[in-house]
Amino acid sequence: HLEKHIVHITLNGGIQVEVMRWSNHINLRITMAARPGQDGHCGNFNGNPGDDTQDAIRARIGLGVPQGESLFRVYMPAVPGKRETLADCPADKKAQAVAACRRAGRTDMDACTFDACFAGTQYVNEGM
Q: How does pLDDT run across 47-86, given as a tens digit for each residue?
């Protein structure tokens, strides 16, 4: 079990940021109202889910963060290639992932199962 350390940040304009620090990565949760021209990894918030696919987002904003904008000392550029899906998760591992997500009470089963299958079941409580 990883101990979670969360940093809470309140910015002007009603923006809330939570930085969840884990042993080998960080997660961010940003809560804010949509702004004109907003776009990013989660979409553009225009109410049209059809233009928020991974391919559409990559076409608009690129594959990753440019090195000059990275917050990390070691820069790891995103590399295009095959994107894993739940169909790529071996059946026994998928069954373990689904069971872990259910035990954790997760309602976003596809996202939780994907994370547990490819990153590990120790992450099923993240984002809850």
A: 888 888 888 888 888 877 888 888 777 777 777 777 788 9
Q: Which residues 6+ apart lie within 8 Å of 34 measured at CB?
A: 45
Nearest to 120 by CA among 103, 102, 96: 96
Structure tokens belonging to residue 37: 């021209």
H helices then E strands: how many in the chain?
3, 3
- Quick check: 20 and 2 in contact, CB under 8 A? no
30's tokens: 């940003």
Beta strands in the chain (DSSP E): 5-11, 15-21, 26-31
Q: Are 50 and 61 in contact (CB under 8 A)?
A: no
Residue type for position 46: N
Q: What phi-psi label fits residue 82: left (phi over 0), alpha (psi between -120 and 50 degrees) or beta?
A: beta
Q: Evaluate whether 116 touches 123 at the Cβ level (below 8 Å).
A: yes
- C-beta pairs of 14-21 under 8 Å, 24+ apart in sequence: 20/126, 20/127
